[in-house]
Amino acid sequence: MKIPQLLLCFLLFICSSNYAIAKKKSHKHHPLLFLPVFKDEITQQYVAQIYQRTPLVPVNLTVDLGGRFLWMDCENDYISSSYKNVPCGSRPCKLSGSQGCYGSSCPVPPRPGCNNYTCSHIPYNPIKRSSTDGELAQDVVALWSITTTTNRNNVSKMILSSTSGVMFNCPGDFLLEKLANGVKGMAGLGIGYTGLPSQLARAFHLPRKFAICLSGNTKSNGVILFGERRSYYASNEVLTSYTPLLKNPVSTAGAYFPGEPSVEYFIGVEKILVNGKIVPIDNKLLAINKTNGVGGTKISTVVPYGTMESSIYKAFKYEFVKAIAKVPIAKPVTPFELCFNLSNSDTLKGLVIPQVSLVLLGEHNNSTTWDLPMNNFMASPTINDSSDLLCLGFLDGGENAETSIVLGGMQIEENLLEFDLVKKRMGFKSVYMSSDLVSCSNKFR
Ligand SMILES: *[C@@H]1O[C@H](CO)[C@@H](O)[C@H](O)[C@H]1NC(C)=O
Ligand SMILES: *[C@@H]1O[C@H](CO)[C@@H](O)[C@H](O)[C@H]1NC(C)=O
Ligand SMILES: *[C@@H]1O[C@H](CO)[C@@H](O)[C@H](O)[C@H]1NC(C)=O
Ligand SMILES: *[C@@H]1O[C@H](CO)[C@@H](O)[C@H](O)[C@H]1NC(C)=O
Ligand SMILES: *[C@@H]1O[C@H](CO)[C@@H](O)[C@H](O)[C@H]1NC(C)=O
Ligand SMILES: *[C@@H]1O[C@H](CO)[C@@H](O)[C@H](O)[C@H]1NC(C)=O
Ligand SMILES: *[C@@H]1O[C@H](CO)[C@@H](O)[C@H](O)[C@H]1NC(C)=O
Ligand SMILES: *[C@@H]1O[C@H](CO)[C@@H](O)[C@H](O)[C@H]1NC(C)=O
Fold first, then answer.
1. DSSP state string for 312-374
2. Given this model, what pLDDT does residue 164 score?
3. Are residues 144 and 157 in contact, defined by beta-carbon separation less than 8 angstroms?
4. How far apart are the C-alpha atoms of 412 and 425, rounded to whole Å?
5. Ligand 4 center to residue 426 CA distance, Å?
6. Domain ranges within the chain, ordered by starting residue
7. In the CATH scheme, what is the code of domain 5-231?
8. 229, 258, 398, 412: which one has the fewest Cβ atoms less than 10 Å from its Cβ?
9. Domain 264-413: top CATH class
10. pTM summary value
11. 51 CB less than 6 Å from ligand 3?
């Protein structure tokens, strides 16, 4: 049966009053929400600014791609008429996977962060490596939105609010330790029900999809986009390389409820290539052990440089040094472990950096190759005003590394990564190697 257009609009208005204003303007297009992301110079953390509460205030948050949820300090200066605690036993509490409840220990009057009979969950700061418990709550959140009208070139930008709450967690302010200056919490973009992508998808009626494009430059911003990316991008910027997102049935957070799965983004690395040569690796390390969640490869925004479990790192370093044989090795500069001395101009002339590639699980039981541009694995630290050093931007993750390979900030900067939580896959495209995406920052100015 065909529903008359007018009735459909009416139904939509009722069902989705939470963004009725935007809906009326352009009911053919989902809005695309975006968060500008800055790289903090001192901590190298990626900091996003979100709007929250009633009245709206800007809140800076460190981006944690594999975080369970949004969490922030509610003890200091949290003023909002739309703050609501999530009651124990409620549907959102159950769906959050919480197995905790605060009973009756909150003093009168109740305040954000302490309400009797409230669902509790476990926020984690992976930089401090510390977990605690905190009240689960919800409040209004607003983001910049881009709306393309029927005229493709007419892009309007405005702040769009959810009138339904977006869930977050309220631990004490001690959990902010080690976060960038001015930051009030972390924006968890994890896969699960409480992750920001799923929360925003519900609150703004978006597809459960998001894309990140992080800038390597502390002077210019990158971006996180929520919703259907193609409604904004030109059609020639279609992604063609995809790799499945793999399930890790055991949480990789610092503390978790029994049976809780990991909400981090795991992908399948099958091989590492240096100049096309396979680095010999114990294949067991590349797989996720379903009993204890150990092993595999994940993507993280909370480590500036990628890590490899010790035996993988040694083998990789060996092949890498062999391939770059002519360049003298320099004394390492913290945090790097392998640096090359480029001060000799003869060295520079003949310098060819080896090609590093990751062979990933592809779609349809086929492999796909991610060729890393040099900027995604070679760092040039500037020490004592001289910049004749080049260091490998992968670090030794240790013998007991929980996750065998971690791709960190350096590896994913200036890449467009699209995470599709419905199709359970990640699309990737290097901005360095692409003619149409000039850089993450100038693309989304
Ligand atoms: C929480 O419950 C306790 C015990 O019933 C009560 O003394 C206290 O006043 C309550 N706090 C709030 C904020 O209602
Ligand atoms: C874009 O759309 C807005 C409102 O929808 C209109 O006021 C404006 O003139 C349009 N701009 C162009 C360049 O078409
Ligand atoms: C939040 O981040 C923005 C962008 O980096 C910055 O301009 C602003 O000063 C920050 N606010 C606070 C309170 O740190
Ligand atoms: C996975 O971990 C369990 C528990 O630590 C261990 O007994 C088992 O041998 C591991 N499996 C593999 C394939 O390494
Ligand atoms: C690089 O090599 C030059 C000599 O060729 C030496 O003077 C300089 O100290 C070296 N730099 C480092 C950081 O090892
Ligand atoms: C994928 O390919 C490998 C060998 O290329 C084969 O052994 C395996 O059975 C295939 N898996 C599926 C699901 O088709
Ligand atoms: C598998 O990948 C190869 C090389 O990338 C390609 O030529 C082939 O068509 C792919 N096969 C399928 C079934 O996608
Ligand atoms: C940088 O300069 C300081 C003091 O001048 C010196 O102690 C240090 O060794 C230098 N570092 C390098 C890598 O040359």
1. HHHHHHHHHHHHTTTSPEEPP-TT-S-EEE--SHHHHHT--PPPEEEEEE-STT-EEEEEEPG
2. 86
3. yes
4. 16
5. 27
6. 5-231, 264-413
7. 2.40.70.10
8. 258
9. mainly beta
10. 0.88
11. no
